[in-house]
Amino acid sequence: MEPNFGKPSFLRNILVRLFLFCVFVIALRSAYVVTIRGESCDVADFCFFALPANIDVGEVVTKSGAISKQKKIPDLWATGGFQKSVQFYSSVFQDLMSEAVLSPNFKTLCVDTPTGADVFALRELGVEDSIGISRKGFKPLVVPGQGLKQPFSDSIFDFVFCGGGAVEKSTKLADFAAETQRTMRPDGFLVVHTLANDTYSFESLLGLFNSCKLVRSRDIDGLNYKLPFIREVVLQKFGGQEEFMEKKSRGVSAEKCSVPSYKKDLIKKAEALIEEEPLKPWITLKRNAQKIKYLASMVDLSFKPRYVYVDVGARSYGSSIVSWFKKQYPKQNKTFEIYAIEADKTFHGDYKLKKGVTLLPYAAWVRNESLFFEINGRESVTESDYVVIKMDVEGTEFELIPRLFKTGAICLIDELFLECHYNRWQKCCPGERSAKYERTYRQCLDLFTSLRKNGVLVHQWW
Hints:
The protein has 13 helices and 15 strands. The chain is α/β, with parallel strands linked by helices. Strand 3, helix 3 (117-124) and strand 4 form a beta-alpha-beta unit. Residues 32-49, 60-69, 251-255 and 366-379 have low confidence and may be disordered.
């Protein structure tokens, strides 16, 4: 009779299967750790995910500062993308610490951070008093709020970080900048990560944060191939009212219009002026419009709090507002406030039912000082705003332009489209000049040349 080996064989199969299952679990764990963390683990913590020692997953910070309980680690924290972001921000913050821009004892805020990877990195580095805000919030590191409406008291943060292009993504830049500066302490630091790579947009960014001074700016490696580089701008809030007022006093004032060199460099890129008087100006000037190098095609307009177009001598709604500005001007998807200045009552009916256009029914040369400083009773435009002017004032440009220089209002214009009126050759009568205007083409050319030499980006209009 043969021996019965059924029971030992059964037990052996169970042991083999149990052993293979353990090997599978260990292999799965190792693969997970290497994929997510890119490093080895400590055996003791089984390290499927490593948290900063100062983050208590069971605690959630509320807007009021109260603490509530969090049941588990957010799944997002265990993803490779989140960990890669944390490593990126950790490197950024370590550099800032070495420059004394950031310190572990600082109270810090990360603005418009949906996931809180930057807050996570700060706490990992020992900056425990760190919090983020985002529209929906993301517990436990990010509370509900927006950059343009922050749920905090005045002057409480030593360090504010705006990463991920938070500034240019804001729909209300003026409110965003004002709120950010409101919650910063005097001498506090603001660090902005932006894609702005031209001088014009960089200076526009600095103009937004007018309660701060520039500490430094540099290009750093971006987070991934989609963002190969980022410009990192470090600003510091003025320490007192005297310092702020000193900067403010250097702004635009009457008879003092200092044009920065970067704006003058842009003028050099503009289309050439027509030196010789055209025999058929109604054709030549219209063709020249096709060669215009718009400012908006040369620079990034992202950091302007307002976008304003003023049509001086607008005539009908369909004249230049619709046929040219709305259809052809490169607005970079920005919404412009449009003002039509037209004294002729014949055209006023065109604007009654038109949305997005404000009619100012008076002649520009009668109330020119109101044109740029108090548009329809609203606040005055500033150097920070983007202002485009089209001017067709029937010959009075020779009186109006000097007035703009005298008042300093010319400094507020980013781009000017000017029709200069002179005794041009008549279309109806070859060899005869118009008797309506006394100025010559040479005088018009001198006016355009003078404007450009004084830093005004002006184009010949027809």
